[in-house]
Amino acid sequence: EVQLQASGGGLVQAGGSLRLSCAASGFTLDEYNVGWFRQAPGKEREGVSCISSSEGSTYYADSVKGRFTSSSDNAKNTVYLQMNSLKPEDTAVYYCGASMPLTPIATMDRMYYWDFGSWGQGTLVTVSS
């Protein structure tokens, strides 16, 4: 069974950092891409990052580019999202999900949540001013 679970959220001041973890089970990271989405009240679901371990490629939304970094630890079957220079607008529940690697990440210009599945519970990130 393909399962993913995000963790590592918390409360941080603007300008601070957090590292989220996405523990994967039921598959290896070379079989599926792992994406990060976030959801905040009153806002649309936003895809923030996607990583392909097999491609060695990552995608970032413009809103987080230069501040967030996705990485993979294949030995632990875990994907990380390092979030630096956090802003209050980053406040959201963050989720990770898996997608079939049908499109090279290097060609992506946007993430679509319906391409991803096996969502676990999200982890709340709160950034204070």
Description:
The chain is an all-beta fold. It has no helices and ten strands. The strands form two sheets. It has a six-stranded mixed beta sheet with strand order 2-10-9-4-5-6, with no helix packed on it. A four-stranded antiparallel beta sheet has the order 1-3-8-7, with no helix packed on it. The protein is globular. The termini are far apart. The mean pLDDT is 95.
CA-atom Rg in angstroms? 13 Å
Mean pLDDT: 95
- Multimerization state: single chain
Read across the widest sheet, the strand sequence of neighbours is: 2-10-9-4-5-6
Helix/strand class: mainly beta
Q: How many alpha or pi helices?
A: 0
Helix content: under 10%
Give helix and strand order, one letter per element, not per position. EEEEEEEEEE
In short:
The chain is built from no helices and ten strands. With 129 residues, the protein is mainly β.
Label this structure with key terms.
129 residues, 4-stranded antiparallel β-sheet, single chain, 6-stranded mixed β-sheet, mainly beta
Note the topology.
Layout: E1 3-7, E2 11-13, E3 18-25, E4 33-39, E5 46-52, E6 57-60, E7 68-73, E8 78-83, E9 92-99, E10 123-128
Parallel strand pairs: 2-10
Antiparallel strand pairs: 1-3, 3-8, 4-5, 4-9, 5-6, 7-8, 9-10
